[in-house]
Structures are given as structure tokens and as C-alpha cells.
């Protein structure tokens, strides 16, 4: 039987992997992927709490989080394409030296 604790452990592991990707990677795309993993970890926790408590509010909130994540990806990828065109690199460490 799968319990709430199993889903929360899965959510925690996904969030830790995403946070590690954001903090340790220098590539902009890997950073965006880490942010997406962290958002999905929050979604897993919301759906798990919603299902185990018998209400649909958490599952409805997940749709709003997914819409924000889609907008974040669209804007983030557009920024990364603009940065790549300017610097010929997706390395986020080079952004601090960049003057527009």
C-alpha cells in the first residue's frame, strides 16, 4: 500500500535533485530544468495531500502552477536564446560580465 509518506519522500527527492541542478550547474538550460523539477516536486506533494485528504483544491492549484511553469519556460528559453546569440555560450557565469 502506497502511503502519503511515500509520495512526500518522492517529492523531497525530486526537489533535492532540482535544487542541486540549480545550484551546481552552470548551463542555463540545466538551471531551467532544475527549476522545473522543483515545481514538479511541489505538484506531487500538492496532489498527494489533496488525494489523501479527499478534496480537489490541491489538484486545481496544480493546474495554476503548471501554467506558471509553462510561462517560465517560454520566457526563460527566450532569454537563453538571446544570451546565446550575444555571447555564443549558455554559461550563466558569463552573464555578470555582460553589459547590454
Report on the structure:
- This protein is 78% helix and 0% strand.
- It is mostly helical.
- It has one domain (4-97): Orthogonal Bundle (Helix Hairpins), CATH 1.10.287.3510.
- The longest helix has 31 residues, at 57-87.
- The radius of gyration is 17 Å and the shape is elongated.
- The mean pLDDT is 88.
Shape: elongated
Helix share of residues? Answer: over 70%
Number of strands: 0
Assign the CATH topology. Answer: Helix Hairpins
Largest sheet: none
Instruction: Indicate the low-confidence ranges by residue numbers.
Output: none
* CA-atom Rg in angstroms: 17 Å
SSE map:
Blueprint lengths: L3 H21 L3 H26 L3 H31 L13
Helix pairs in contact: 1-2, 2-3
Amino acid at each position: 500500500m502506497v502511503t502519503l509518506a511515500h509520495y512526500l519522500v518522492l517529492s523531497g527527492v525530486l526537489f533535492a535533485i532540482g535544487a542541486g541542478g540549480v545550484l551546481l550547474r552552470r548551463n542555463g538550460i540545466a538551471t531551467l530544468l532544475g527549476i522545473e523539477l522543483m515545481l514538479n516536486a511541489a505538484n506531487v506533494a500538492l496532489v498527494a495531500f489533496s488525494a489523501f485528504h479527499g478534496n480537489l483544491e490541491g489538484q486545481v492549484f496544480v493546474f495554476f502552477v503548471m501554467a506558471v511553469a509553462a510561462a517560465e519556460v517560454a520566457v526563460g528559453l527566450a532569454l537563453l536564446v538571446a544570451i546565446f546569440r550575444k555571447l555564443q555560450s549558455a554559461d550563466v557565469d558569463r552573464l555578470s560580465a555582460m553589459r547590454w
